[in-house]
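A favour, since you know our structure tokens better than I do. Could you add the entry underneath, on a fresh line?
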Amino acid sequence: QVQLVESGGGLVQPGGSLKLSCAASGMAFSIYQMGWYRQPPGKQRELVAFITSGGTIHYADSVKDRFTISRDNAEKKVYLQMNRLKPEDTAVYYCNALRTRDYWGQGTQVTVSS
């Protein structure tokens, strides 16, 4: 039974940083593509970044050069380091795992506000 549990969200001022974590269980983590998505209030869910099983990384243009995705296969975790945060980064952030189907975490709230 695949489980994805996000943590690390919270309230941060513009220009600040947060590091999100996603802990996976119940799967062969290393063969999955892992990603982060976000859903701003009243908006559709959108891709933030993904990292393939081979280590190839893609970022949305809106976060490129500010966010960094990484994975640790030994501990079955994927991270999202977020720097120079902006109010428009405010959203619920979701961890995603993809192989033959999608799995999703419960989400963690990130609020960027003064």
Q: What stands out?
A: The chain has a mean pLDDT of 97. Residues 38 and 44 are 8 Å apart (CA to CA).
